[in-house]
Structures are given as structure tokens and as C-alpha cells.
Structure to design on (1340 residues):
């Protein structure tokens, strides 16, 4: 049994804690939150211990590994502490909103053999990962084009958006990682364009965009296209398509159930899509924990690590520069 | 070029005439209708000749074959005349509503080498026939169960229903033929049940049913299930499913197009189904003419013939007896 | 928190124990199994207590309710003990394979106010229950036909089949309950036919069938059709369709994920279906526990109870009689 | 009856001739081809006259309108002759590969009231046009993003590609028109990138690309993305998606039929897509003729005209400039 402590008992931390408790080869060693009642509520339900500080969790002999689900600006510091304590760590994305801070963190942990996993949960989605597996199996031949559709069900509150780092660093970053995951080859050039269509007044205030298209190009000419919107009224729209010279693989949206209605006015009418990420990526969150448990058991690097988190942020920076300058930006210009 | 005369210029005759005129290896030799203006309208558009009688068409040297699309009660007689004249014939179903009359016709034409094709158009539907081909190719192994869903978009007018011969002989008969086509083995036993749900008062007056379930069983125990309704508000519902010991083949409904709508209330909302048979079986009607042209060219028996028409009627009779006696009826009891 | 004891730690009991432990308003009070190590394994993972006997669980003050997941022939006895002890009970289906024993049990517990829930999990499947909700909401108007497709991914071992009570009491019984659930009106007549196609030699030895069609008819003429097979190579096939005078609702199969493959030979190729019931009805098993927890909290009768278990068995008996006598059997003949 | 002459009896001209002959309100007045036997073959089948020259058709009193389906480099000249003769004209796309030549033609025919229709058949596809209609009906609210997937089933022969004008002017041009059709607002900026992935050696020789992504932006910030490939092994891939602030409309691929196969290895396996445009856009070609017939009858401008042909070419030129300069190109830079 791998004994895992969860730092941060917000919505996503509570979910991770429950998944760890239910996992056949892991136990919930304890929980911590800056707001004590949040940690206590999890402890009551699961029987897990409450840590009085993150440091206490790192110091505990009863903790084999930690999961960081605290506020974004604490991620890099806690990650450094985890590595210093020799505790394998699963860190929610992003490492930090500042590329400079991420690079500093990278320098500090350079050479560590402590397993570090980044919380890019979508790589563990059964559908999206099946696209990657189909490519690896040669089912679609050499990859040519990747199309990622990623739209949130609705705008987050202004308070959240203000500190989110902007749509590229907050939302698109998942898709930039997905593009790297599916492409299997590094991106060398980026083009992006942003519009203010969902809530122009709010976006003006924030200096942000709500509608984004990104085109990524690799050295060999492979193309990946990302389309983002902050509002898909029909639900959380998450699709991945890969075209190769022998075929195509598509990971379509997942629904709450498969009931359809047919009347004199329409056929095949289904429910809106699963909303939001905790429901949509339920299987992915389970598989993410399994990957972490296995990496800890085998003392190996997880399949998605720190450098993946850093490179996704580099692509976000390149996209921001492309939006500003209305031209293709070479990745090496920003990294 | 096979020169084909069309007898009967109602809705289905007009469609057949157009299909023949457009066919690359056939020409429309002429048309006849008891109501002359109906024939003349077709002639004006296509440049085809108008025959003053069915007999004139049978007698003409410029006619290689005939298509019978006249009123049901004239089919058997015209078919006998066609055979006597040595003209290959494509006859719309049913041969006759009376099994005795059909048997008499069979006796009269016994031994003829004139190609006779019955208008069971659904056998030529690309989807339904692909189910049969999948079975023949061994894709689903030995056949175990067939499920045929067949529902009309709405009740026909009472005037039509009165002379239709009842739901079993008028509507289910297509599905009984489809069951024979897919099963590839003769049915030995029949169970059927009928209800009056769509329009109970009308059905009471007609002594008919509007909602039917038929179970067909072959000597080896294969099962075919037919569900019929006189009203599917969502359109003309036409599905065929075959389960075998290695897999399943399904021919799903065909739509007018593939546009779907997704909003805050629903996803995947599509148009109602194609309505009615001329639209739904457009490709089937084309292929049916091709089969006839080819059979005439090659002087061979068409893939669906007189005996198929007769046996479908036998199964309808067995189903009617089952409804009356509420028990399994052996096919040999009625044939 | 409702404290629930789980009796029986086979595959399904272990799953229920984990679901109870993970449920926000329930805790796993303890477990029991005739084979002690099975119970201990669950206890180790969850921290729950091990009971030395079922009686100990019924007697415990720390147990608010019990879930019976032991061998079938112990269900009725344990259920009687639970009622005697005043403990609300969720009992896996079937109550017993003998209708006489079930009737005796019914007599013994007559008049009890203890909540009793039967484990017909499919009623809680989000898709299937959405069909029922659509009917209740009037979305499809008056119900006319129900078509239930229910096929196992493969034959269970002979040892299991021998004690299963036969396909009607073991497998079809779920579909008979689903038909009652969807129809919303009692079945008055039953027709059934059985074949030996999947493994004829084995079925001959067992005196059982592996391929079943059942037609159920209500007093008002509504029709429900069930098609069963012991082997669907493509996975666990679970579909429910309801036709009404205003429309149709279909609950389609659920898949492990939505990745499809498209090549020069095919398009839309998806994975085989989820296999088997624990995976397919994952959401249903969660919702079943929620219903039980809520019923216990509210001291009310669960939405699916003892009489539902008894009536499904009555329909199975009527179907067996129909197979034997090849005629429609009135339900009152067997109940 | 509108009497239409068809100029050019290649594959697409023959198809148009047959569609005109079958149209209820049109007749095929005659055909012309530079290669006389091609015209004669059509005449034999349809009974239409053979014109000895295009001029003869323009001069004929028995011709109400003409359809131009000759070689691309003759389109502009014939179009000018048609306008001079006062004959309404349906001209296959492109008007010309040279924007200068198109502009010269525009100048020459400026002010004409002769109905001119451009052969952008995809606007008449029932699915794609239903997307446009959904937008006009307000079903998806204000439009934000359009995603057009357009991939040919395979590379055309080198001889064809050499004279095609390149992928942007030959293939993407259809999608550029579709983007304008769906956007309902003029494009002001274009970004494009091209790769050589399908056949790099051939593309090097031709100085062309086989894999294209285009991003189009309107003044209000609406985004349209086009992904093109010269090879989709799974068939002719033609999809249109529109996202608005109230919902989404998708026109999915059309299939030859709806039969799917399910085995132990897979489920839902369908046939490759319809291949190629004559099959895929069958309904569209019918509707295109209907629009032309109606425009001629009503002496009105067709819904898609000369300027649409010119503007699509302008966008293609802007995309070519963007590929060369790796930056966003303003449409006014090229027009």
C-alpha cells in the first residue's frame, strides 16, 4: 500500500483524496489545508489523519508520497520541499504561471531521482489515450494533423479569471500538453489568434481573450490545431482527432448516459455533455492516481513529468507572443 | 439498352418510370395507365410513348420487359399476361391479397423461363443488403437472432386501409420477406400478437391491428422478431439487426442529412427520419431496376422472384392464424 | 451516516462494500463471509469490522442496515432474519429460485414496515432510468411497444449454469423486471420461445436454452419484447427502447470510451462494449446504494422492493410454461 | 420547362446533363464537347441534340440557359459569351486560376442582369446548408468559430495537379467559399500554413503543399479554421462545424449506408466514407440545378454568384501570401 498525503482540500483535492482512499493499492495517509475545517471534513469521512502543515506531511514517516492540490502560487515551493524531503509528488498543473519561476524550480530540482508527476489528467482519459495508443500501434500510419477541440461549459467567475494567468496559461495549457502528447514530436513554431466574443466587456477589462485558435507546427511539418472557447452551452466539449497517412483516430465527447429521444420534431436528441472536468475525466483521474501509485511502487519516473509542465507553459508563452505580433513565433524565441 | 414499359402511373409507377429513363442500360419504352392523363404526364416529361392498354404493351415489339405498378387486384392477371407474352416482368408487391389467387397464378405460370421479379425493394437497400452480405461473408458466424423494426410514419387514410388486406398482408409482408432474406433458412413456425393502440376505434371498425409483434422460428431454432407500428412520429423507422455466434450486423435508419444541433438543453439533435418509402429507399429502388435490367440482359431469374412473394403471403396467413388462436402456428398448417 | 453491513464478500459483495465506503452519507459498518479470508481482505482495505456470522451483524447496534450478497439459496432466510431484526435490507436478486419459497417468504414478512430493496440495479442505470423518466414526463406519449435487448458477453461456466435456475430465472429475470419498470402497467400474458444455438450440447445436458425471445402483453395491449442470448461476442449488450404515440426513447449501449478508428477498410470502428455488469452498471450500482441510503434515512419503502422480485419470478415461470406449451400463457395461470 | 445546354461532357458535365434530364422543370436542350464522341454518347442516352460548338449553343433559340463544365481555362471566356448572348449561366468553379483574369472578366460583365451561378455545390448539400439555416434561425446564437474539415480520399494524378493551380486554388477554394457561406460576414485577415507530408517528393517537384491549415478572421473577431489533406484513406472527409454563443451545429460525414459490424474485436465498424464528390454531393448537385432552374424561371440572381467565385480566389491568394511570409495577411493586401 502506498500511503499518500493530500495537500489542499478544495474541490479537486477532495476528489483526489476519495480516489486515493478507494484505490486498491493506495491509502490516504493524511490531508492538509490552509483552512483547517476543509481538511477535517475529509478526515471525518475517510478516517485519515489531519496534518497541521504541509511540512508536517513531508516530515512524516507514514507518508510515502504527496499530492499537491493547493493554490497555484504555492505549487513550485511545495514541489521543491517534496523533492528535498525525497517524497514522490503528484503536482496539479500549472507548476507556476511564471515561466521564470518554473525555470528556477527546474534548476533547483535538477538531477533529482524523486518521481514527479504533473497533473495533466487528460493524458489518462481512456479515449484520448487510446488515440495515442492507436498511433503507437501504427493504426493510422505517420501522423499529419491533430485537431483538438476544447471548450469550457461557461465562463468562470471574474475573480477566478483575474488570477488565472489568462486563457492561454489557464485553459489552453491542457490542450498544448495534449498536442505534445499526441504529436510525439516537439513543436517548433506557433501561431495563435484570440478574440473577445463570449464576454467582450469582461475580456477588455482583463486584457484577455475568450475564443482562441492555436496552430502548432513541428520540424517535420506536422500540424496541430487547437480551438478553445470559454463557453460551450451544450457542455464541456473535449475532443481529440489525429489524421495519419493510413487513417484517423477520434476521441469523441463522453456523455452522462446514452438515452436519446425521437419525436415528430427531432431524432437522436441526447443530454448536454458531462459538465465539468471532475465528471468528464472521472476515469482519467482514477488512472492518473494508478500511474502515480505504480511509479512510486517502481521508483520510476511517471509518464508525464515536470518538463512536460514546463514545455506546455513555453508553448503558451509563444502563443501569447504570436497573438501580440500576428505572426508565426519560433518556440526557441521564448524558451 | 433494355426497353421497359411501365404499367400504372401512380406515385410508385412515376418513380419507376423516371428511374428507368435515368438508368444507363435501360430506356423507358412506354407507359400505360387506366387514367390516360397520368400516363400522358409521364410521356411529356420523358418523351416515352403512351400505350392505350396493358395488352398493347405486351404486344409491342419495342418492349423488352414490363414493370407492373397498377392496382393490387390487377397484378396477378397482368403477370399471367406478361408471362404468356414472354415479356420479363418486375411486379410490385403483393401478387394478390388472396393466397388462393396467388396459388392459382403460380399454377398457371408453372415452368416458365420468363424472368419474374417481385418488388421487394428493401432487399436492395444498401444497408439491409450489407447485413445479408456480412452473413454470407461469415462476418457474424452462424445466425441466431434477427430483429426487424419496421414502423410507418403515420396511419394511411381509412379508404386505403380498408382495401389494404390488413396490416399483416400490407405492411408486415415486407418484413416477413426481409426475415426470409436475412435468415437464409425457411421459417417453420410463427407466433404473432396484434394490438389496437394507434387508433383503437378505427382498428375496431376495420377488424385490423396497428401494432404488431411477430416471432418467426426456423427448423434449426433461429429466431426472427418483427415489431411493427402504424405510427412512428419521428419518421419511417426501418432497421434490421442480425446476431450470430461471431458478431452482429445492424442496418440503422437513414437520414435526410447529417446535421446535428447542440444547445444548453440537448446535444446531437437530428432531423426526423426520411419519410416515406420513396425517399428512404431511393438507392434501393435504383438497385432494384439494375437487378431487373441485368436479369433481362442475362435471361436469368432475378434474385427475388414469384415464390418469394408467395411465401411472404403464407407467413402473413400463419401470423393471422396465430393472432386468432394465441399459439404458435406451423407454417405447413396454412400453406 | 448510515452504517451498512455487507453479507457475502464475493465479487459483487466486494464491489458493494467499496461503493458504500466511498458513499458520502454511508459507512461500511462491517462485512461477513462464510469464507473468513474473503471478509478479512475487505476489512483490511477499508478498515471495516469483520462479523463472525450474519446473525452478529443483525444483532449489532452499530449496524443500521444490511446488504445481502451471499449465495442465492440463503437470500430468503437472511431477508427474513433482517426483517425480524428490524434492519432495512438491500437484497441481491433473486430472492429465491423457487416461487413457492418466495411466496412463503412473502407470507412471513407480510405487513413489515422495514425497508426492503431488491437488487435490480438496471433500474438505476442513468440511461435506462432516463427512458422511464421520459415516459413519465410525457415525452413519448402513451407507451405502445418496449424492446429490450439483453445479451451476455459469453456463456458462464457449466458449474454456474447448473445451479443458476436456468436462463429465464437467472438472466431474463432482469429483463422481465426492466419490462415491468418501463411498461408501468402489469403484464397479463406471456409468450416465450427458447433455442439451443450457442452451445446446443451443453443446453441439452442442462435442459436449458441459450437464446430466448419473450413477448409480454398488458391488459391494454402494450407489447414488450425481450431478446436474450448467452453470447454476444462484441460485449455485454444492454439496450432498452420504448415507442409511444408521440415518440421513442432509446437507451443505447455504454462504451469504455469514445475513441473510433477510421482507415481505408472501415470507419467509426470502436472498442467492444463494456464487459461485464460491474463495469457496465458502475453508475447504476452507485445510484442503487444512494437509493437505499435515502430510503433508510427517510424510513420509506425503496423504489424497487420485494414484490418486484416476486413478480419478475412469476413472469419467468409463465415464460417457462409458454416455452413448454407453445402458446400464450396468462400470468394468472402461474401466480 | 427550362431548356439547358451543357458545355463540356467530362465526368462532371455528364452528371449535370443526367440531372437536368431528370429534373421535373428542366430539359436537356443539347450538349457540346470539344471531343465530339463524348457529346454524342450523352445525346444517344438522353435524346438531346449535339451542338457543334459552344457558340452554336449560345445562338440557339431552343436554349434558355447554359451550364459550363469545360476545361478551367475556357470558363471565363465562355461566361463572357453567355452573358453577351443573354443566356443565364451556371459555371463550374473556378472562374479562372488567375485573379487578374477573373477581375478582367468581372469588369467585362459588370452591370449585367443575366443570372450567373457559380458551381459551389457544397452550399447546396442538405447537411452543410442546414448549418447555415440553423444560424439564420438563431438556433446557435451569435457565431464564434467555424471548423471545416475537408480532405480528399487520395492524391489526384500528377498530370492533374500540375495544372490545378495548387491546393489552395483547386481544393481549399471550396472550403474558403464554405467559410464565407457559414460566417455570413466577410473575412478580413488570413493565416495559413502548408506542409508536404502525403507525398513530399511530388510536392517538392510541384512547389505545392498537400496538408494545409487556414485560419480566417472577420472584422468582429469570428474565427474559421480549415484543415485540408490530399489523402484521407478512410474516404472523402467533409465536415462543417459552427459554434455560437447559444450552441453548435455540425454537419457530419455522409455514408453509403448505415450498416455497422460488431465482433469480438470491435463494434460499430462502418464502411469507408462516400468517395468521391459526385457520390458525396449527390443531393447537392440535384439542389444546385434546382436553384439554377428557379433563378432562370424567376429571372433573379442565383444564391451564389460570380462575386462569390472571385472572393474565394482572393482568400486563396491571401493564404498563399501568408504561407510565404509566415504572418497574418490582410485580405485588402491582395484584392
Amino acid at each position: 500500500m502506498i500511503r499518500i498525503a493530500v495537500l489542499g482540500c478544495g474541490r479537486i483535492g477532495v476528489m483526489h483524496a476519495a480516489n486515493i482512499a478507494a484505490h486498491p493499492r493506495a491509502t490516504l495517509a493524511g490531508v492538509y489545508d490552509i483552512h483547517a475545517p476543509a481538511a477535517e471534513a475529509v478526515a471525518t469521512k475517510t478516517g485519515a489523519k489531519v496534518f497541521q502543515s504541509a511540512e508536517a506531511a513531508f516530515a512524516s514517516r507514514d507518508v510515502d508520497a504527496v499530492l499537491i492540490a493547493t493554490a497555484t502560487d504555492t505549487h513550485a515551493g511545495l514541489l521543491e520541499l517534496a523533492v528535498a524531503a525525497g517524497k514522490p509528488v503528484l503536482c496539479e498543473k500549472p507548476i507556476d504561471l511564471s515561466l521564470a519561476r518554473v525555470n528556477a524550480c527546474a534548476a533547483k530540482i535538477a538531477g533529482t531521482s524523486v518521481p514527479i508527476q504533473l497533473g495533466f489528467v487528460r493524458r489518462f482519459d481512456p479515449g484520448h489515450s487510446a488515440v495515442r495508443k492507436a498511433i503507437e500501434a501504427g493504426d493510422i500510419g505517420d501522423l499529419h494533423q491533430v485537431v483538438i477541440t476544447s471548450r469550457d461549459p461557461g465562463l468562470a467567475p471574474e475573480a477566478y479569471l483575474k488570477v488565472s494567468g489568462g486563457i492561454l496559461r489557464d485553459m489552453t495549457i491542457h490542450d498544448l500538453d495534449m498536442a505534445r502528447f499526441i504529436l510525439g514530436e516537439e513543436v517548433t513554431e506557433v501561431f495563435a489568434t484570440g478574440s473577445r466574443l463570449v464576454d467582450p466587456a469582461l475580456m477588455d477589462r482583463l486584457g484577455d481573450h475568450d475564443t482562441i485558435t492555436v496552430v502548432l507546427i513541428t520540424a517535420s511539418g506536422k500540424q496541430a490545431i487547437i480551438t478553445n472557447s470559454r463557453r460551450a452551452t451544450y457542455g464541456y466539449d473535449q475532443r481529440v482527432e489525429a489524421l495519419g497517412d493510413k487513417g484517423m483516430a477520434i476521441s469523441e465527447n463522453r456523455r452522462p448516459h446514452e438515452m436519446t429521444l425521437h419525436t415528430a420534431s427531432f431524432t437522436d436528441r441526447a443530454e448536454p455533455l458531462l459538465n465539468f472536468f471532475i465528471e468528464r475525466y472521472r476515469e482519467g483521474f482514477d488512472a492518473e492516481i494508478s500511474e502515480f501509485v505504480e511509479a512510486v511502487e517502481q521508483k520510476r519516473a511517471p509518464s508525464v513529468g515536470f518538463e512536460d509542465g514546463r514545455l506546455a507553459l513555453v508553448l503558451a508563452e509563444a502563443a501569447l507572443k504570436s497573438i501580440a505580433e500576428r505572426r508565426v513565433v519560433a518556440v526557441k524565441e521564448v524558451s
In short: The longest helix of chain C spans residues 306-325. Chain C has two domains: 2-114, 123-280+311-333. The first strand of chain C starts at residue 2 and ends at 7.
